[in-house]
Each structure stands twice: as structure tokens, then as C-alpha cells.
Amino acid sequence: QVQLVESGGGLVQAGGSLRLSCAVSGSIFRINPMGWYRQAAGKQRELVALISGSTSTSYADSVKGRFTISKDTSKNTVYLQMNSLKPEDTAVYYCNANRLGSVYWGKGTLVTVSS
Q1: Sign, CA torsion 41/13/106/103
Q2: Taking all residues of the chain, what is their mean pLDDT, rounded to a whole number?
């Protein structure tokens, strides 16, 4: 089993920044890839960013150049640095992990961007 706990969400003005954290515990070996997803009210959950291995990353077109996913293996934590936030980034952000064919989710953290 893998446990994921997100933190760092909150209320921020448009143009501001937030850093989300995802603490990983449990059976952490052979977790790959990890990612951040988001779900806005009334919309489907969508992929925001993925990190595979130590350095391979990919992003949704809507966040390219603004968001950065990274991980600190010494802390078993994955981060999502979000800059130049827009009201349309408002959503619950979820951490996701894949391990040996199983998918794990955190409970999410709410990000609200005011205009």
C-alpha cells in the first residue's frame, strides 16, 4: 500500500504562487511515475504534471511554463510549484502514484485563485 498526503493549498490572488507538497509513505519502492491531477467544480479530473524517474517530466499545455513538478527522494515528497496562477487554475489538486500496476490517490488539497 501507498499513502499520499497533499498539503500547501489555499487562497491566492491571480498572478501569485503556491507550492503543493505530496508526502509519500508505505511501500515506496518502485513507485513510478507520480503525478498531480486537478478537478475543478463540475469538471472531470485532468492531468496537470507527471514525473518519471528522477528528471523526466511532462505537463498539460495549460500549465506549461508556469508549473514545475519535482521530487525529493530523501524526503519522499513530490512538489508542484505553481507560478503565475490564474482563476482557471482553481481546483482540488490530487497527488497520484503508480506502483506495479496499482494506482493510488491522495485526498486532495484545494487551490483557489481569486481574480
Answers
A1: positive
A2: 95
